[in-house]
Amino acid sequence: YVAELAGSGNYGAWAEGPHLPEARTDAGAAFRAGKAYVVGGAGPDGAPSATTYVLSPDPATGALGTWDPDEALALPAARRGGTLVAAADGLIYVGGADESGPTTTVWKANLDSKGGLSAWKPQAELAAARVDANAAIIGDFLWVYGGSDAAGPSRLVQIGRIVKEVVADPSVTPPTMIDVFGTQPETSPLHLPEARTNAAGFTANGALYLVGGSDGTGGRGELYWTIPDPESATLTVDDSTGTGWHHLVGSDLPTGGLAGGAAIVNGPNAFIIGGTGGDGVIASAARTNLAPKPPFFQVSLLGGVTIPALKIEGEIGQQLGYLSAAGVATVNFAVLLFIAWAYAHPDRALALWRRVRRRSA
């Protein structure tokens, strides 16, 4: 299905788009170098597949064209429930399940000089098998969080280190590869607060997000987020919770539990489209704004200095906006009181300002 973007934070009515050559569920999907890819997934018989379908929209007209199978990009083995990640120089397919269950395999297809993808190459394997996980690249690391192993939903976070391949020709820009995956003991604050699988996950402004998913008993509606260090495999631990992941009730999904939704980020907005709720598969979507509101004071009362009001620099996400009021420094609060007084007594404020200017002159 296709919907046209219609202004900030909205899109138009859904219409049918080009159909896949064959039905797929639990496939990996990503957009890279002007093309859309659907990789693996279960076919009509329920068995994992190795197929890769490619859609190449016309950049001039926007026409989508048709999905075409790419035999050269078929996975080395059949998988469903793997996570497809768009890297700067290619695509990475993480985990997934074969006929026997969740796997540890990781494959990467590198971009060539013409914008095409080469055949999949094995990478370092996951520390623990995963299916229906979330994954994203932050800095020099691939973060894989949540998902299921053979025992069910997991809260484990695994981190892959991204390095450059060694090439013989120094004039050639080496592609990247994942040389090792690591994790920490289950008691580590690195891991999710609760087990989640088949959640909606995405990254924005250097933060990782996980929304909804299943804990094994049903769909959940919580939103968790964290801000990894892009240069190391670490999270800043919240002393109040003992974990590197944050949660605010006001940021949870308004519709309750939801698993299997598709996460889309467009500018400052994030959408969770479709999925399975308490009443079954749904056709609706949820939307949130990831950025705090702009400063509500942009004045020059203090010699041309802009007052940032309640904006907290470096904090990311709408959920952090709820904390802004509690984090304003005393000096800023005093400035806000002065501004309020000035607006209430404009004549006296102007007289005071003129006296200050005369003294400074």
Structural notes for this entry:
There is one protein chain. The chain has 361 residues and is mainly β. Helix content is 9%, strand content 28%. The chain contains 3 helices and 24 strands. A hairpin with a 2-residue loop joins strand 7 and strand 8. Helix 2 crosses helix 3. The chain is globular. About 12% of the residues have low confidence.
Major beta-sheet overview: 4 strands, antiparallel
Widest sheet: strand ordering: 1-2-3-4
Coarse shape: globular
Count of DSSP strands: 24
Mean pLDDT score: 83
Total DSSP helices: 3
Helix content: under 10%
Query: Pairing-aware structural class of the strands and helices?
Result: mainly beta
Q: Which oligomeric form is depicted?
A: single chain
Radius of gyration: 24 Å
The string of secondary-structure elements, in order, is EEEEEEEEEEEEEEEEEEEEEEEEHHH
Strand content: 25-35%
Span of the ends, CA to CA: 66 Å
Topology:
Layout: E1 28-32, E2 35-39, E3 52-55, E4 67-69, E5 83-87, E6 90-94, E7 97-98, E8 101-102, E9 106-110, E10 121-122, E11 134-138, E12 141-145, E13 148-149, E14 152-153, E15 157-164, E16 176-182, E17 200-204, E18 207-211, E19 223-226, E20 262-266, E21 269-273, E22 276-277, E23 280-281, E24 285-289, H1 318-321, H2 330-344, H3 346-360
Antiparallel strand pairs: 1-2, 2-3, 3-4, 5-6, 6-9, 7-8, 9-10, 11-12, 12-15, 13-14, 15-16, 17-18, 18-19, 20-21, 21-24, 22-23
Helix pairs in contact: 2-3
